[in-house]
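Input record (one chain):
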Amino acid sequence: MIALLLAVAIGVGGCVTLTPQQQDVVADVQRFADATTAAYNLPRIRLTIEPETNLGIGGRYRLGNFYLNVRMLTAGNLNALVAHELAHYVLGHDTPVAGSSMAEFQRGAELRELDANAKAVEILVRVTGLSQRQAVETMVVFLKAAQAHVERGNALAWGHRPPAEEIADLVARFPGREVAAEPIIEKAALSSSGPVLPPRWTTGDEWTYWWKTPQASGTFRWVFDREESVDGVDHYVLKSGTQRNIFYRKSDLAGHLEKVSGEVQTRYVPPEIRLMWPLVVGTEWEQTVTRERSTAPRVETSTRRCRIESEESLTVTAGTFRVFKTVCRDPQSDKLLYQVWYSPEVRTWIRDWRPVSEGALERELIGHKAR
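The corresponding structure, as predicted from the sequence alone:
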């Protein structure tokens, strides 16, 4: 499939050379498109990757064809853009906009874009498994990025209203689903039913997550691939796409390595302890870890103090699960660095939170398969 997609990109969109990671993304976009057309009983849409331009056009739909700018393959709002362009296809926006004057023509185009934003929410829910709240947030973050683009002095895309007006229209169509600072959760104290030990992952285990920052949002999937020895120590290996491998020490799920196309991109020395086993409320630990990366900043050393704070019941998109909440802070400043909610039933974390530039990164489980 990847070779076919690359051939289409070269034959129709011009000479576009894709890296292995970009090929992974193209394959994901095509799967998203195929799942959407299947869900709406429509013919398969043709995907074309176009060369990068300075026109500011990330993607466009024309007469059964979806054209995607190559620069969008690394964009944080790719899912929202793809859903929006697929929405034009689902809504049948193939005929010219009607209008006897330029003003009427412009208004008709604007209404199509507003409808596509709303339909994109439906597609994200129906095809990717997001909750309606998450889908609305995904589109709002996407439109806020468009607003920032305009505020930097770039032109507003023709046929669109100012992004702030598009956001207001979208939120008005989904009353009660305004963007929330925290996901919808339910909590209640529980009693443990015995010691919680490190999980055993097996072939067929996979977990799908939704993530969001103030600037971007999307989804990703981890699949358990194999066990492998690193420096004489057994590790679990998760795959993300076909090129990225993530290594966790089998004995305690400490994060150790990330490889892309077989090359080490990130190494934690020593492996980063993210959970202390058996999981017992009140357990504390402190660790200093050096993160070595293939890109700048190449070396970062930090210390964190962590504590298993509570045992709770947490509701995320994937369901309601018993969880252990762990909180990590800077031991010097007491600044909150990381929060994670681990589910013994799911055998990994189902939600996490950490501060990033201008806000926070939040990730939440939206689906899983386990044996």
